[in-house]
Design goal:
Elements: E1 3-5, H1 13-29, E2 38-40, E3 50-52, H2 74-80, E4 100-102
């Protein structure tokens, strides 16, 4: 079994917020007629300490791909939405994490 190690990485509360909110918002949109809503979070998934990439996901109701993994330029997307976003250059800088839901 191929496993992707994620243990040992710090999990910040602000980083996990988009990963928690995006699936919930998708579920809220579905009964209102947006059955094609597709959500993306930020950064790598950390739902499992070790991800078995050769087996089915253990949390398909919660796991979402990251915007970066789908080829989106997060900085350009955030700026196009009218928000300011700067590159985090040191540990003293506050990082910002985003999620995105595509709705048809």
């Amino acid at each position: 079994m191929a496993k992707k190690k994620t243990a040992g990485r710090k999990k910040s509360k602000s980083r996990s917020k988009p990963r928690e909110m995006v699936p919930r918002l998708e579920r809220d949109l579905f009964p209102t007629g947006y059955d094609k809503a597709f959500g993306m979070a930020s950064g790598p998934c950390r739902l499992c300490p070790d991800c078995d990439v050769e087996d089915a996901c253990r949390y398909p109701d919660q796991a979402r791909p990251s915007m970066e993994a789908c080829g989106l330029d997060v900085y350009a997307t955030v700026r196009a939405a009218g928000w300011e976003l700067e590159v985090v250059r040191s540990e003293e800088d506050t990082p910002h994490f985003f999620g995105l839901i595509l709705v048809d």
